[in-house]
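Before the break, one more example. Copy the sequence into your notebook; we will annotate it together after we see the structure.
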Amino acid sequence: MIKSRSHIEVRYRSLLQKAVRRGHTDLVLTTSALLESLSSREKNWYRTRTAIITFEECWPLGSELVFNRKFHSKVAALMKVTRSSKLRDAAGLGYLASALIEGDTAVLDGTTDDKHVRIIADAIKRPDAFWQWIAARKKSDEQKALIENAMRYKQEGLPRDRAVIQAAAYLSVIEKPPLRYEPALPDQAFPYWVAFDKHTPEGRLVLRDVSRDLHIPQLQLEWTFFYFEGAKTNGEIPSKWWARNCRRHFKKVGLAIEEAHLLWEPAKPQMIEALDGYGRHLQKELYRWKLSNLKQVEALERQVELFIEHFEAVHRDQMKLFDKDHLDNI
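Here is what the structure looks like once it is written out:
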């Protein structure tokens, strides 16, 4: 039996983001349908979290956050992130700036890139001035769409989430993002045990026990678990800001990034053994729910695909409308 509604929420919320990162579209769809069935609170959470995940995991897709009142429009946005290569520059830059605000001056490394961290840190302290500056910049249609969406969600989530959204808006006006691609589908089954991280009661308990048994500092174990498993993707474009943030966090927990695998390799089997039962239970729970609600899941899938097809068709028409050769022929 499921212990409580809140117990379901934290596990499935964690599962959702891990599935998005790893590119498991079917799992994202089913988990989304389940979350929709729980309560209006979960539907509201899903809307906000979809925007935050988009800016965190693939910030250029912030220009495509087109929501209406229907739940499937939010799922469609999250599905785009799931199917896309990941680009975490906004997350890395936002996290670095947040750490600087909190007094961690070690985020600054003495390079010219420090100025960008300071700019976002200043944006955190003076958000109104930052958004006024962003609004005054000359922008393409795509940049304008991203910034409008960023401003729409600028008050959502935790302070660190808001810093990521500011970083995405900033990056959109200072650089051209690299081309995204659609990575190959995952070739392995989803490891449900990774959903039980430090944000779940089960994960906290196991992290504490394994840390004690292996005589590993718990903060080091938590971070390596996230670095090697929780943050794992099926297609990531190299990001200097994400890499810099990871180096900073390894330094914070007192572990050299080059030696992290030496800690994680012996810890991983014990983590899997301790979390496998929770993972199998979660998988069976989701499978049973899907079988009982198959029509609901299939309907959501159709709605999502139609929404994406319509969005892409409209986007192609707009691009054609503003194409130079097309304009010359008018």
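Confidence is low (pLDDT under 50) at residues 1-5, 319-330. The chain is about 70% helix and 0% strand. Try to locate both features in your own notes.
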